[in-house]
Write a structure and sequence with these properties.
By secondary structure, the protein is α/β, with parallel strands linked by helices. It has two domains: 69 residues, DNA polymerase, domain 1 (Orthogonal Bundle); 234 residues, 3-Layer(aba) Sandwich (Rossmann fold), CATH 3.40.50. Helix content is 50%, strand content 18%. It contains 14 helices and 13 strands. The strands form three sheets. It has a nine-stranded mixed sheet with strand order 5-4-6-7-3-10-11-12-13, sandwiched between helices. Strands 1-2 form a two-stranded antiparallel sheet. Helix 4 packs across helix 5 and helix 13 runs parallel beside helix 14. The chain is globular, with a radius of gyration of 29 Å.
Length: 366
């Protein structure tokens, strides 16, 4: 009898242990499920961003109504990705693919849906902006003025009188873009559209030595094109879009943006045509910066207003179209003892301010 009671007691203890284990199991599973959910939610944004990028880089034939022949025409016209089609104007697609406006509108709508382009919450946009890079100018004070350097996905314009340092900054950026990211560079190459014959490879050699780079390798990573007309300049910008997609180009430089437009369109009677053409050119540069996450740096000429008795009579060329289009606008002017003053005139997120730097044999320095 004693043995039977002991066995019953052991069986009851085992039953109680199994019941408690069964009760604890769902709790443990729930905790594991909560942890997994938190991990999944942290990765959701990254997965969504990757999915959007993959969709944007997909084949054009994935779009309904686009066959091999139409896809080839679009690619020949510079539209090699779905995202490039999604950001194009209806007229441009109609002309490039030789299709009707109704079909072009349908194709662009489908491309936008494929790329998930539309309204999105500001917190998602903030996450996307974490991919934006900063390119050092070589001067710490100049970089501080720009909150770390020249920003990717934006157009930065520098204007000023001759000798103020606009072209020096352009050549400096063509060198610093080759630096690794941890040294303020973007570990990439540069495209330089020269409209005023200001690019000098000898100067680049000096700057490369000053930054500790191999001069020969630095020159090989800078691709220069000389533009002689405004049409030539615009065609080179469209060609640049293809090169940026196919290589590791992280900055596109136009020095200067307005000189050819200014020389070809003379008088008030041609002002409207000039501004429309300039606006189209700037739109191409904006797409180039945004779609390829690269820096676009442009220089601009100035004019003087002799009838102005108070304040600075120096005004940039390009009118309101360029003023509204440039993301960051910087006014460069000469100072004493070889110093230059950079004044941040316009920015969507930074306060106005000034930075003083020197242009030396080694490049831009504090």
């Amino acid at each position: 009898m004693a043995e039977e009671k002991i066995e019953e007691t052991e069986e009851e203890a085992l039953d109680e242990k199994e019941e408690s284990s069964a009760e604890e199991a769902p709790v443990e599973e729930a905790e594991e499920s909560e942890e997994a959910t938190e991990e999944d939610s942290d990765e959701d944004d990254e997965i969504d961003n990757d999915a959007e990028e993959d969709a944007g880089e997909g084949s054009l034939e994935d779009l309904e109504g686009i066959g091999p022949a139409t896809a080839k025409k679009l690619m020949d016209g510079g539209y090699s990705t779905i995202k490039s089609v999604a950001t194009a104007a209806i007229g441009d697609i109609t002309e490039a693919a030789e299709i009707s406006e109704a079909k072009a509108k349908k194709v662009i709508t489908l491309a936008k849906e494929k790329c998930n382009m539309g309204f999105e919450s500001a917190d998602r946009l903030l996450i996307k902006r974490q991919d934006i890079g900063k390119l050092t100018t070589g001067s710490e004070t100049f970089d501080t003025l720009l909150a770390g350097g020249m920003e990717t996905q934006a157009i930065t314009e520098c204007y000023g009188e001759w000798g103020s340092g606009k072209s020096q900054v352009a050549m400096q950026l063509a060198v610093t873009v080759q630096l690794p990211v941890d040294k303020g560079g973007l570990d990439g190459e540069a495209l330089f559209i020269d409209t005023e014959n200001t690019f000098r490879p000898e100067r680049v050699v000096q700057m490369a030595k000053g930054m500790g780079l191999d001069p020969d390798e630095a020159l090989k990573k800078i691709h220069v094109a000389r533009a002689y007309t405004s049409d030539d300049q615009m065609l080179m910008t469209e060609k640049a879009a293809e090169m940026v997609r196919d290589s590791n180009v992280r900055i596109v430089i136009v020095d200067s943006l307005t000189s050819l437009f200014r020389s070809e369109y003379v008088g008030r009677g041609t002002l409207a045509a000039r501004q429309q053409k300039l606006n189209r050119h700037l739109s191409t540069l904006h797409k180039l910066a945004d779609l390829n996450n690269c820096v676009v740096y442009v220089t601009n000429q100035v004019m003087s207003k002799p009838d102005m008795f108070f304040g600075d009579p120096t005004k940039p060329i390009g009118g309101h179209i360029l003023g509204h289009s440039a993301t960051f606008r910087i006014y460069l002017r000469k100072s004493k003892a070889g110093k230059r003053i950079a004044r941040l005139v316009d920015s969507p997120n930074l306060p106005d301010g000034e930075a003083v730097f020197k242009v030396t044999e080694n490049g831009l320095e504090d």
